[in-house]
Amino acid sequence: xxxxMSKPVPRPGxxxxxxxxxxxxxAPGVARVYKLSSNETPLGPSPKxxxxxxxxxxxxxxxPDGQALELREAIASVHGLNPANILCGNGSDELLGLxxxxxxxxxxxxxxxxxxxLVYKIQIMGAGATPVVAKEKDHxxxxxxxxxxxxxxxxxxxxxxxxNPTGTYIPVSEIRRLQAGLPKHVIxxxxxxxxxxxxxxDYEAGIEVVSxxxxxxxxxxxxxxxxxxxxxxxxxxxxxxxxxxxxRVRGPFNMNAPxxxxxxxxxxxxxxxxxxxxxxxxxxxxxxxAFEAIGLKVTPSVANFVxxxxxxxxxRRATDADEFLTSRGYILRAVxxxxxxxxxxxxxxxxEANRGVIEALTEFMGHKA
Length: 369
Ligand SMILES: Cc1ncc(COP(=O)(O)O)c(C=O)c1O
Description:
Elements: E1 34-35, H1 47-56, H2 69-79, E2 86-89, H3 92-103, E3 109-113, H4 118-126, E4 130-134, E5 136-137, E6 140-141, H5 143-149, E7 154-160, H6 172-181, E8 187-191, H7 207-211, E9 216-221, E10 234-237, H8 240-249, H9 257-268, H10 270-293, E11 297-299, E12 305-309, H11 318-327, E13 330-331, E14 333-335, E15 340-347, H12 351-364
Parallel strand pairs: 1-13, 3-4, 3-7, 7-8, 8-9
Antiparallel strand pairs: 2-10, 5-6, 9-10, 11-12, 12-15, 14-15
Helix pairs in contact: 1-9, 2-9, 3-4, 5-6, 10-12
The structure holds pyridoxal-5'-phosphate (PLP).
Pyridoxal-5'-phosphate (PLP) binds at residues 39, 91-93, 117, 160, 164, 191, 193, 221, 223, 229, 234.
């Protein structure tokens, strides 16, 4: 017989979760605000995606295709995959949550890394399981630390590659070593939200590793280089059995019709993506060297943001810099919750914003602009 309570009570552990706090959007009293806090692209989506979105507005009374076939086929043809191994989600966040919902329960453990994306921890705890943190090395995922954290309770391992908020990556050889060291029943989630931006010969988002193993999945998003964050479009490439399990519990119409249409058009426009990647590459280099020149440390980034570290000694701390930048209309991301109390993360923005942040930080650091 169950015990009667005076009000509805969530499952144990739910109220221990610290809710995700999205990047700030407002700078009170400032006329022109640049939001550089959520790793959105400054270039917007492909005009073809906008066109497809608008066309979808003509049929809003109809349910979307619950299989999101048009989008899965477009993704499959661009990446050379079988559409049967692709599952789309309302942002990749939904897929990260579904993986935890389906594969974790009370008593299980999920491994995350020291500076890993906060959604992993939230979803592990939401499923009633326990997050176990593996240390990183030089702000980079450490495969040995992850393997050392595995116990007989481990069911899932999450790594973002590249990492957020670090912007660092590990080569595919390390991913393979990680997979080889994990028990076969442990799912390895390769979150490749920023994969399109990476220009490194030893990097792979994970397609090969997923294709040749039954316990690896890769998640991707249209929120970054494709500029569709508002529409919530993510996808997962995974073995058929994992897709099947998630399909059983997801919402039957988890992808809305405008998102399906715009996503399909966006991924077919790869020349737009290449332009966005080139623009990003140029500014990652410029911003990194400009910040280093004024005495700031920057973690080397292969993604579309930079993690800027403020000096410990002389009192010019990240919180002061955040306030200083916000008062000038530049909103960066405080990353205290990621284990970086004296750092800020800056998404690559439009040219005037990037130049403006360089100028403002130069002034903040006491150099002549
Ligand atoms: C590492 C990482 N994974 C996943 C996401 C979530 O992406 P989506 O917008 O597809 O839910 C983000 C967004 O910030 C991210 O940084």
